[in-house]
Amino acid sequence: MAELSVINAQIFYDRTVEAIRDVSLTVAPGEIVCLLGANGAGKSTLLKAISGIMGPERGLLTKGSLNFGGVSLAGMASEQIVRAGISQVPEGRRLFVDLTVEENILMGGFTLPAAERGQRLAEIYQIFPDLVPHRTRVAGYLSGGQQQMVAIGRALMARPKLLMLDEPSLGLAPKIVATIFETIAVLRKAEGLSILLVEQNARIALEVSDKGYVLERGRVVFDGDARTLLDSPEIQEFYLGMD
Ligand code: ATP
């Protein structure tokens, strides 16, 4: 089974700026794990290193080990990482706004044999039936929530084992955020997915997660099961606000 295991990772921009310092974490098969922390804590950097979106050739140097299913991700191109079973939904969704909903979703299926893409597309529409009436519309005209669904659908096209989501709640109304998080919980069961979630909205992230890690200036300062973090006075004071 495919476990993500990050061991003593150090990640540098331009070989010198240390954005992640000695971070270790695991995401077991079928687990939902959230990475919390303020702006600039290093959450997106860790996801970019795991997905290979920004590799050494683009200035991101990783030391320590990043393993998935016992295989090292070091030196793999992002396409190989997708083939290994890891897909990312990037921060800000990054859709091709001039292409249609369907063209955007299909874009995520480049690693599948052509004969399987139609079947997988039908499965994506079963997960997100609200997208069906919009399939031929240009993605830029959709609401923020619908665009987030397209971005998740695109990532799911590759049939990942691990889905990484960077700030899925960004810029969305609370009701839409709740729907997106319900979908995340459903996906874990329906697709047998592991999920690594980066979120500013700590409460909603912990409510859906099994485990959480809190990053501060590139280091893990708290980690534990989600219930314990939700109940922790420090986490409540610094990350959950006063209720
Ligand atoms: P946010 O929620 O703002 O995205 P984050 O926790 O995801 O925050 P990162 O974006 O990973 O944080 O940033 C971690 C550190 O790395 C910050 O100090 C940031 O300034 C620095 N950093 C991010 N991107 C680059 C880059 N391309 N070049 C150099 N430094 C960078």
From TrEMBL:
Organism domain of life: Bacteria
UniProt KW keywords: Amino-acid transport, ATP-binding, Nucleotide-binding, Transport
GO biological process: L-amino acid transport
Pfam families for the chain: ABC_tran (PF00005)
InterPro entries hit by this protein: AAA+_ATPase, ABC_transporter-like_ATP-bd, ABC_transporter-like_CS, BCAA_Transport_ATP-bd_LivF, P-loop_NTPase
Record-annotated ABC transporter domain positions: 4-242
Molecular functions per Gene Ontology: ATP binding; ATP hydrolysis activity; branched-chain amino acid transmembrane transporter activity
Family, similarity comment: Belongs to the ABC transporter superfamily.
Record-linked PANTHER family: HIGH-AFFINITY BRANCHED-CHAIN AMINO ACID TRANSPORT ATP-BINDING PROTEIN LIVF (PTHR43820)
The protein's name: Amino acid/amide ABC transporter ATP-binding protein 2, HAAT family
Source species: Paracoccus solventivorans
